[in-house]
Design brief:
Elements lengths: L1 H7 L5 H12 L2 H13 L3 H29 L3 H8 L6 H33 L9 H12 L2 H20 L2 H28 L5 H8 L8 H14 L6 H6 L8 H29 L10 H11 L4 H35 L3 H20 L6 H4 L8 H38 L9 H28 L1
Bound molecules: phenylalanine (PHE).
């Protein structure tokens, strides 16, 4: 066991793991996707349902994934195969691997936009913006350029690959340790800026005063998908990261810290975006370009905006990088563990696949008309990927994971793993009914309603 652990690599400390897992969780999900989805789903009503999903689904599933990972010390496919040999469960792991590459493919496009906007910030382009329409024009022109879009996508996948090449300790952990604290400081400065802009109170109301009549299953499904996406759950990321945790660390408290931290950053991102958005008279439901329109316009209106601009895009790029690392690490760990590939071959092949698929998303925001408005469904390729994988695949993955843990592997064995070396799992009596019944049932009800809405 000892030998195997050192061969695969292991987090050097509990805080190292928490930072790395938080690095995976905190990313574009919090800063780009959370405001985008909250904006189109009614603001505060969505925020309430989001918090509900983090508690009812997110935390229990996070504990489940971490315990499966640490117990098996494997990637998702190997993990399910080990716990339920020669059964169909390994395909749940396969779904996770496919989802990881798929999410990476469009995620890296948005991350590429961040890099592009970082360059714009350095070039002082945002200082000239005086109306919301101008900031929209900048975005449209930017997203329409096919070569630049592919270049930015390529740069981001390359950056991700370079970090993964170095392995768990040299790469992921070291980066997360240095970068997370910087991220928080810059984010808080921007929130202070946003809430002090004149006219920001309307945004605060939109974000904080829930209109309960707006709550419905459609928004609950959005909230579920967003919670899972933001916490990196439902595709085995936390199985893979959990496989590098030491036995003496307390999984359940680590999971709790990661959930609290991730949620806090998402909520802060909302405070950064919505007050500024309303202060500038923009609409909250613009879609994926939302933060790319709000942040530059806000920068133009603040003293020191030039430096804030450089800081914020740098900060988001870094947060995105610690997430893409975890997206790519899942398929990489799979072929390294199961197929005996070298790490560098695994990174090259998986990174290239994500890049090739990513091109379709990169060209679907104005560069190619066909991909921008797909026939019949009238939405972009990027949106389709996001819906299919962030909303559906992660929810189905989480549903099956909780059923697997609750009914196949069994909560008794999982608790034995969690409490392994004398650790006390304080909330196990609460966790058991959740992971066995409440969590999967909630996901089933949400999907049941979706079927009803679609077919009846
Ligand atoms: N949680 C990451 C974010 O919020 C995205 C992600 C999803 C990472 C799924 C890994 C797995 O940006």
């Amino acid at each position: 066991m000892e030998l195997k652990e050192t061969q695969r690599g292991i987090w050097s400390s509990k805080i190292g793991f928490i930072l790395a897992a938080a690095g995976s969780a905190v990313g574009l999900g919090n800063i780009w996707r959370f405001p985008t989805v909250a904006g189109r789903s009614g603001g505060a009503a969505f925020v309430v349902l989001y918090l509900f999903c983090v508690v009812i689904v997110g935390l229990p599933v996070m504990i489940a994934e971490l315990s499966i990972g640490r117990h098996t010390r494997k990637n998702p496919v190997g993990a399910f195969e080990k716990l339920a040999p020669h059964s169909g469960w390994k395909y749940l792991g396969v779904l996770g691997i496919v989802t990881g590459i798929a999410i990476l493919s469009f995620y890296a496009v948005i991350a590429g936009w961040i890099i592009g906007y970082f360059f714009k910030a350095v070039g002082g382009e945002f200082q000239r913006i005086s109306t919301a329409a101008e900031s929209e024009m900048i975005f449209t022109g930017f997203a329409r350029n096919p070569f630049y879009q592919m270049l930015l996508l390529g740069i981001f996948i390359l950056l991700t690959s370079l970090v993964i090449w170095r392995g768990v300790k040299g790469g992921i952990e070291k980066w997360s340790k240095i970068l997370m604290p910087i991220l928080i400081v810059i984010l808080i400065s921007l929130v202070i800026r946003s809430v002090t802009l004149p006219g920001s109170s309307k945004g605060l109301a939109f974000y904080l005063k829930p209109d309960f009549s707006k709550m419905n299953f459609k928004i609950l499904l959005e909230a579920l998908g967003q919670a899972l996406f933001s916490l990196s759950l439902g595709m085995g990321t936390m199985i893979t990261y959990g496989s590098y945790i030491q036995k003496r660390d307390n999984l359940s408290t680590s999971a709790l810290y990661v959930c609290i931290f991730d949620t806090a950053i998402a909520i802060l991102a909302g405070f950064m975006i919505f007050p500024a958005l309303f202060a500038m008279g923009m609409k909250p439901d613009i879609g994926p370009s939302l933060i790319f329109q709000v942040i530059p316009a806000m920068l133009a209106r603040m003293p020191g905006g030039y430096f804030f601009g450089i800081g914020v895009f740098l900060l988001i790029a870094i947060a995105a990088l610690t997430s893409t690392i975890s997206l790519l690490e899942v398929p990489v760990a799979y072929v390294v563990d199961e197929k005996g590939w070298s790490r560098s071959k695994a990174v090259t092949v998986m990174g290239s696949i994500a890049f090739i698929f990513g091109i379709f998303s990169a060209l679907s925001n104005g560069a190619l008309e066909f991909l921008t408005k797909l026939p019949a469904i009238n939405t972009s390729f990027l949106n389709v990927m996001d819906t299919a994988f962030s909303k559906f695949s992660l929810a189905i993955g989480s549903l099956l994971e909780s059923l697997f843990l609750g009914w196949i592997w069994g909560t008794a064995k999982a608790i034995e793993e969690i409490e392994g070396e004398g650790v006390i799992f304080k909330y196990k009596k609460v966790w058991i009914p959740f992971i066995k019944v409440i969590t999967p049932l909630l996901i089933l009800i949400i999907f049941g309603d979706l079927l009803r809405r679609t077919f009846f």
